[in-house]
Write a structure and sequence with these properties.
By secondary structure, the protein is α/β, with parallel strands linked by helices. The chain is about 45% helix and about 15% strand. It has a 6-stranded parallel beta sheet with strand order 3-4-2-1-5-6, sandwiched between helices. Strand 3, helix 4 and strand 4 form a beta-alpha-beta unit. Helix 1 crosses helix 2 and helix 5 packs across helix 6.
């Protein structure tokens, strides 16, 4: 477990990549990898609670994932519906507050109602905020925020855009982890990750465990976060995160 004497990132974001490759290497359908990925997420949520992480944001389904083979998309939707039924009571008992972030147009009425019910059932929980980015894209998020401000007649300033983003209810991520060996953001939290520390893991998401989470946290703890300031300013105590990241 990560050392308690060092700062634990308050907000961790994860691109959960590698489910399909994990299944393919085992001569299984790709959907089997996504099912195993749910188990990995369950472990990760528990590990974050145990380590005192306040917010976990995960990339579950991107707006580009609709372009995958129809049987895989259909399987992912079924997994999501099943996970809502199974996991929400467990998450609620564990003190997890759920938020589903993304475009809901195009999802089935049953799916949308399941998301709303899960958010309502966990709204009072305080141990961990779990943001599940589902049918989400970073460019969609920015465009949506800009359109919202234009509709309201508000100026397109950085502060106003920040407040209009889909994750305005939480501070920006301190640490962004991507599994699966790839080193790109893939349209995930483009606005919010401006000052996030990045950690790329070679483990496929179904293989991601507490030890790998601790490796990411240790990498975060070893870095100097300057937010545009100099090392001397940080050492003197003036190197603080900008605006909403202090929350």
């Amino acid at each position: 477990m990560a050392s308690s004497s060092l700062q634990i990132p308050h907000h961790i974001a994860i691109v959960m990549d590698g489910n399909g490759r994990w299944a393919t290497r085992r001569f299984l359908p790709r959907v089997a990898g996504h099912k195993q990925g749910v188990e990995s997420l369950r472990r990760c949520v528990k590990a974050c609670v145990d380590r005192g992480v306040g917010i976990l944001t995960v990339f579950a389904f991107s707006s580009e994932n609709w372009n995958r083979p129809p049987e895989e998309v259909s399987g992912l939707m079924e997994i999501m519906v099943g996970a809502l039924a199974r996991e929400v009571p467990r998450l609620s008992r564990d003190g997890v507050q759920l938020h589903f972030v993304g475009e809901r147009a195009g999802l089935s009425k049953k799916m949308v109602q399941g998301l709303v019910d899960a958010e309502t059932a966990t709204a009072q929980n305080t141990k961990l905020i779990l943001n599940v980015c589902f049918n989400y894209g970073g460019r969609w998020d920015i465009a949506r925020a800009a359109a919202k401000l234009a509709e309201q007649g508000e100026a397109l300033t950085e502060a106003n855009l920040d407040r209009a983003m889909a994750l305005a209810h939480v501070p920006d991520p301190d640490l962004l982890i991507r599994t699966g060996g790839e080193q790109r953001l893939s349209n995930f939290l483009l606005w919010q990750s401006a000052y996030a520390e990045l950690f790329f893991s070679d483990k496929l998401w179904p293989e991601f465990d507490q030890a790998e989470l601790d490796a990411g946290i240790a990498a975060f703890q070893a870095r100097e976060r300057r937010f545009g300031k100099t090392s001397a300013q940080v050492t003197a105590g003036s190197g603080s995160a900008p605006d909403r990241q202090l929350a």
